[in-house]
Amino acid sequence: MNGAAAVIPIQPASRGCADAPVLKERGQREVFCGLTGIIWLHRKIQDAFFLVVGSRTCAHLIQSAAGVMIFAEPRFATAIIDERDLAGLADCNEELDRVVTRLLDRRPEIKLLFLVGSCPSEVIKLDLSRAAQRLSAQFNPAVRVLNYSGSGIETTFTQGEDACLASLVPSLPAPAAHAPAELMVVGTLADVVEDQFARLFQQLGIGLVRFFPPRQATQLPPVGPNTRFLLAQPFLADTALALEARGAQRLAAPYPLGVEGTTTWLQAAATAFGISAQTFAEVTAPARERASAALARQRTQLAGKRIFFFPDSQLEIPLARFLSRELGMALAEVGTPYLHRSHMAEELALLPEGTFLSEGQDVEKQLDRCRSAQPDIVVCGLGLANPLEAEGLTTKWAIELVFTPIQGYEQAADLAELFARPLVRRARLAVEMPVRTAVVAAGTQPEALPCS
User: Fold this and answer.
1) Is residue 258 assigned to a domain?
2) Range of the domain at 85
3) Local structure of residue 323 (DSSP, 8 states)
């Protein structure tokens, strides 16, 4: 195969939305809080424990959101602050020390303990940063204790991961003197996706590749001026800033969603490490061809359908690029909680020119725009999905796009199916419900309708 000819540079026909105006809203918003990130982070870092310091409400949230894991002993818990603590009748630091000591005695396998604030320190009346420093000194070197905020007052739900990883960056070791350049992939990925990327990087001939966060807290990757890093998730602004402060260099690229996004993401690493075009084409061609064929089947369901994004996870712009360019969907509005123009520059350039972009939220105004647009499918949080379904709109839960492995070639068709499935279900119901009504009117017993 002629590898140089096989790699087709992906170039937008115009500047896309690189300079497009953005509607900025600062009103009431509808989002999950950053505590939710614990659910996927505690699966990833297998010897870490997340101790939420907060109220009973926060305990109920994390218990409900992580209810699927009730049959296994989880690695998160809540140190509940009650009225007695808030009133200053108890020494919160003494109470926290007691809880942490009891926890580490019971769970000696813990190597990394995160104290996660559910509210700002002004609310919980406890400086978790100082508490973490004190406890880390007490239990060092067996256990490292760090802290970050998962407060919904301060963050959207994916920013919990950003705060967590940013708190870890100062603990990353420095590389050895004169160490060769290394690649770091930043952002929590499902283990199966991480393994797929590791194989591709190895086949490309890129040396040792580190993933951050690692699967074990004892395997923290080194970082320094010889580090080149790719963001696997678009919501890691603080983590990227902290890595750059350590001398690491970010490789600018779209995010690895779909065939196009994955190819250009891998290409950024290949270019930085001097991999030839022919090698790149030969290594990636089989996976690209499989993914493209799988996407062609999904395109028949999605082409021409209009989609509306409420701001939720910061995945909205990369998803919109994938759906519009690879599946032929039309973008009614692409809302995102926060638009980091530097990190999104390559994505914005690939969006269709004239795409309506919004940043932040005034939920009532955005609901009015959504009702006026009457899109075929709406991507939104759980709090909006049921009301919109009741109004006759088809929805997709935004949080499912964070919990599901969606990055890389092998997951491209699975990602497309997440959007096709609600539309297929709606179409099926539209056909079957009149039949059911007619059967009931005739006085006969209808057959059960399928749920999916």
Assistant:
1) no
2) 34-155
3) H
